[in-house]
C-alpha cells in the first residue's frame, strides 16, 4: 500500500518532467521536417529531408563544428591543468587560505552574460581596456582581441569562469586523500613529482573524469559569451553549432532549418554524453 501511494505521489512530478522534455523535443523534430519560414508563413508544408540537407551542406557548419571542438577541448585542458595546479598549491597551510579559496572559486558563480561583459569592456576593449592600458605603458601595439583573436578570447573568458569549478572539485577530492600514504612516501624520500604521479594523480582520476564529463556537456551549448562579445564573427571565426542554429532561427527566420540543426545538435550531444558517462562510470567501478 505504501509502495503504491509513493508511486502515486511521484507520478505528477514524473509526468511533468517527461512533458517538459518530450513536448519541446517532439516540436523540434516535427518542425525539422516542415517548410516553415517566418517571413513566408503561407508556404508552410511538409519538406521531407530538405531542411537537414540544407543544414548539413551549409558551408558554415564545418567551421562551427571545428570551433565547437576547439572550444570544448581547450577549455577543458586549461581548466583541468590550472584547477589542479591551484588545488595543489592550496593544500599548503598559510594565513588567509580560506579567503583565498573563496576568491578563487567566486568567478564560477558569475552569470555568463556578466562574465562576457567584464572581459569585453574591462579587459579586452582596445580603447579603455586593461590590456590596452598595459600595452600603452610598455609601448606595445594595442591588440583588438575580439576582432583579431575571437575564438581565443572566448576560450580565455570561459576558462576563467570554469577553472574555479575544476578547482572546487579537486580541492574536495584532495581532502579525502590518505595522508598516511603521503607521509610514508615522504619517509621513503619521494619527491613532489613522485608523489604527484603515483599518489595524487591516481587519487584524482575520478574527479578529473567528472570534471571533463560535466564541462564537455555544458560547453557544447556555449552561447551567451559569443552573442555578447563577437556575435560569431568576424565571419564564422567564433561561430559554434549552437550559435549557428541561433542565426538560422532568429536572424534568417528559418524555423525548419534551425529545427533540423537542433536535432543534429541533440544527436551529437547525446553521443558524446553517452561515451563520456560510460567512460567515467567504468573508471568509478575500478
List keywords for this structure.
single chain; 286 residues; mainly alpha; MetI-like fold; two-stranded antiparallel sheet; 14 helices
What is the count of distinct domains?
A: 1
The value of Rg in angstroms is: 24 Å
| H/I helix tally | 14
- Oligomerization: single chain
The largest sheet is:
2 strands, antiparallel
Neighbour order of strands in the largest sheet:
1-2
Portion of residues within helices: over 70%
CATH H-level superfamily: MetI-like
Shape: globular
CATH domain fold name = MetI-like fold
Structural class: mainly alpha
- What's the pLDDT, averaged over the residues? 85
> Which parts are unreliable, with pLDDT below 50 for 5 consecutive residues or more?
none
CATH class: Mainly Alpha
Euclidean distance between termini CA atoms: 39 Å
- SSE order in H/E notation? HEEHHHHHHHHHHHHH
Number of strands: 2
In the CATH hierarchy, the architecture is Orthogonal Bundle
Measured by DSSP, the beta-strand proportion falls in under 5%
